Amino acid sequence: MNHKRLQSSRFAEPFCRVIPCNCSFILHSILTHTYNVSVRTGDMYGAGTDANVFLTIYGDLGDTGERKLAKSENNKNKFERGEVDRFTIEAVDLGQVFKIRIRHDNTMVGADWYLDQVEVYDVETEEVYMFLCERWLSKKKEDKQIDRIVYVKVC
To answer: What Pfam families does the record tag this protein with (predicted)?
Structure first.
């Protein structure tokens, strides 16, 4: 048997090819940014919620995908009347942030929520983006919507 010859001809071709790439583009697109998010609940009767709240941040380079705002960094009981809750989101570089989508899942007895505003701070660029909602997210109040798209406030 010519076993040695079969092996050498079988492995004569390279196993893989090196494909040139634009490494700076790849590195730029996978670098993460830290976004500090502050959510202010309105200061009126019944404004707080016990529902699960979800946020998506949109920029001209992409979006965060929907994120559950699960644990406030500064309040044990989040989204209470008149309080500001802080969250940290790690995501790809979004570029210039221009809108958010914020919603809740309408669970729990006290699901109605009056959202005053959301502030997004990009730690890497030191840019602050303000989103004024000043509306109810409620199946019973105002326009009965629990999902809001809010555009950045232009100063």
So the answer is: PLAT
